[in-house]
Amino acid sequence: MPGIEDEVLEVSDLDVHYGVGRRRHRALSGVSLQVRSGETLGLIGETGSGKSTLARTVLGLVRASGGRVRIGGEDVTGYSQRQWRSFRRRGVVQYVFQDPLRSLDPDLTVQESLLEPLLLRGDPRASALEAVREQFARVNLDEHLLPRRPAELSGGQRQRVAVARALVVEPALIILDEPVSALDAANRVQILQIIKNLRDAGTALVFISHDLGSVAGVADRIAVLYQGELVESGSTAEVLRTPQHAYTRLLLGSVPTLHAPPATRAERQALRAQLNGEPV
């Protein structure tokens, strides 16, 4: 069993608030979670639950109102913009966006996009090119795509390019934000298999999604966010077998299985009423 020294990400009692006074909005409240080397954490919740806010806070794009964030044993909570720039160039943590077409520079070729972070940190061009080819093969892409620009690729190819760009700096942690939500079934399967391979190779992963079905097959543990609070967490098997929170049961009821259809509309309404404290 991995020990505390293997923790790549540690979030402790994290609070995030937007605005001031009467316009102050609580986005996250007292969230604590950990991710270890070679572990995939599935972060589940509906739109507005705080998933992306948590990711952006871990990446230093949103400032924490309270609590602590440690990455690779380093407390980054109070980092200045200059410290964050230096930290990001080291490539410890990488982020894969939901929409790769918007995250990839349309004016750069795929090869130029993948080379950029390596050259910025001072890697020799020859070794950088070798790293690009290695990671391209790792996500099952052919080198003939390297001279192309993002608009010339399919959606599945662009998403795999985005994963390769994250991998090229050999990060300790990768955060994937809804990486399969915009893909068809065939490309979804390919991306999920790549995620499994990354986990097996020892990379720590946070897989953000509103879709419990996609996460369940690749995550070691699941954390459920609801209205900015972590309402349930545990091993994937435990959460799927014996969900403790009404919101988790609502999510499970929306996922069809080989053994049972999804919950009926009346059943989902009853769970939603339970969440809101209404009589059932």
Highlighted features:
single chain, about 280 residues, alpha/beta, six-stranded mixed beta sheet, four-stranded antiparallel beta sheet, disordered N terminus
Architecture overview:
This is ABC transporter domain-containing protein. Belongs to the ABC transporter superfamily. With 280 residues, the chain is of the alpha/beta class. Helices cover 38% and strands 23% of the residues. It has a domain at 245-280. It has helices at 51-58, 81-89, 100-103, 110-120, 125-138, 155-167, 185-200, 212-216, 236-241, 246-253, 265-275; strands at 7-18, 25-36, 40-44, 66-71, 74-75, 93-96, 173-177, 204-209, 221-226, 229-235. The strands form 2 sheets. It has a 6-stranded mixed β-sheet, sandwiched between helices. The N and C termini lie far apart (43 Å). Residues 1-5 have low confidence and may be disordered.
Outline of the structure:
38% of the residues lie in helices and 23% in strands. With 280 residues, the chain is α/β, with parallel strands linked by helices.
